[in-house]
Design brief:
- The structure is a single chain.
- With about 350 residues, the chain is of the alpha+beta class.
- It is built from 15 helices and seven strands.
- It folds into two domains: about 220 residues, Hypothetical protein, domain 2 (Endonuclease III, domain 1, Orthogonal Bundle), CATH 1.10.340.30; about 130 residues, Nucleoside Triphosphate Pyrophosphohydrolase (Alpha-Beta Complex), CATH 3.90.79.
- Strand 1 and strand 2 form a beta hairpin.
- The radius of gyration is 24 Å and the shape is elongated.
């Protein structure tokens, strides 16, 4: 349907004019600074727009230039990313920015080859920065774009397969509006986020007349995506342990792996250990004289799920103190970079401790 030049031109104009008319008011759309667009694109990976907005605004206020981010210490960086998840994104972003500052004089490179050589910059992020910040006609294919084009062009390849992305990248390059590649790519993303959603709102679609799947009544069948294998589930017991005098025992996670270098309360894998309190005593030198269960919740990562049982414990022991495990005041705990599960338990533990102190 879009093979003819006239049809392609009509499609481009309909899509781009709709975008300028209906696009959401998002803070990263008010800048052409490649650094800030880079920050937004990294934050938007696997995270909803509504969640990202306040993080983006705080982050770019704290680190307004690449030099300020390049020079930040890791704890400061992780604190600004706290709760956003997928923390390797933050580390990779900082490393990539350092490479730009050191190797490109603080100027983000404007070719796909150079920008793709930066840490953490994959094909999508590279294309997004090049097209949005520099106006270069380059593909930027994410899940939203694949969903839109699988319907428009009736592409029946399995989008769960990495090789399929090449088909969509070529499709974007064939269709891209060279006069305004920034608006074209953002329009595809916007359409996929707001109208061409898993259950599409076809009556509102500005390019419905060009959609091969709609014409055949197959829009809800596409895109084709095989299901992921079942995720691993790990039951964990977390213990917010206090000395009763306003101090809390925290440990730092290893430098590599899941939630690297984040701070957390002592945790025990219940698949491995059947007596978690004994593990806490053996591993941290802490015998809890009071233990109260306070909450249970699930936290889903991309590849596994934590089933968390949260407890508050009270001890008179000093514990085994090291660089990676020690006591902190409540204010210090507040300032440490923590993951969402730890923040959930901390919010409850802090409140219950305040109530207890008030009643005493």
């Amino acid at each position: 349907m879009l093979q003819e030049n006239e049809q392609k031109k009509l499609f481009q104009e309909a899509l781009v004019s709709w975008y300028y008319r209906e696009k959401r008011d998002l803070p990263w759309r008010k800048t052409s600074d490649p650094y800030k667009i880079w920050v937004s694109e990294v934050m938007l990976q696997q995270t909803r727009v509504e969640t990202v907005i306040p993080y983006y605004e705080r982050f770019t206020s704290k680190f307004p230039t690449m030099e300020s981010l390049a020079n930040a210490n890791e704890e400061e960086l992780l604190k600004m990313w706290e709760g956003l998840g997928y923390y390797s994104r933050a580390r990779n972003l900082q490393q990539g920015v350092k490479e730009v500052v050191e190797s490109y004089g603080g100027m983000v490179p404007s070719t796909r080859k150079e920008i793709s050589s930066l840490k953490g910059v994959g094909p999508y992020t590279a294309g997004a920065i090049l097209s949005i910040a520099f106006g270069i006609p380059e593909h930027a294919v994410d899940g939203n774009v694949m969903r839109v084009l699988s319907r428009i062009l009736l592409i029946e390849e399995d989008i769960a397969l990495p090789k399929t992305k090449k088909i969509f990248e070529q499709a974007v390059m064939d269709l891209i509006y060279k006069e305004d590649p920034s608006a074209f790519n953002q329009a595809l993303m916007e359409l996929g986020a707001t109208i061409c959603i898993p259950r599409p709102k076809c009556l509102l679609c500005p390019v419905r007349d060009f959609c091969a799947a709609f014409e055949e009544g197959r829009q809800e069948e596409l895109p084709i995506k095989t299901k992921k294998t079942k995720m691993k589930t790990i039951p964990l017991a977390f213990y917010a342990i206090t000395d009763g005098n306003g101090h809390w025992f925290m440990q730092q996670r290893p430098e590599k792996g899941l939630l690297a270098n984040m701070w957390e309360f002592p945790a025990v894998d219940l698949l491995i250990e059947k007596n978690p309190e004994q593990v806490i005593k053996r591993q941290y030198g802490l015998h809890m004289k009071e233990i109260s269960p306070v909450l249970e919740f699930s936290h889903v990562f991309s590849h596994l799920t934590w089933e968390v049982q949260g407890f508050i414990g009270v001890t008179a022991d000093k514990g085994l103190i090291s660089e990676k495990a020690r006591w902190f005041t409540a204010d210090e705990v507040n300032s440490l970079p923590k993951s969402k599960p730890v923040i959930k338990l901390w919010d409850v533990a802090k409140l219950k401790n305040e109530v207890k102190n008030t009643s005493e």
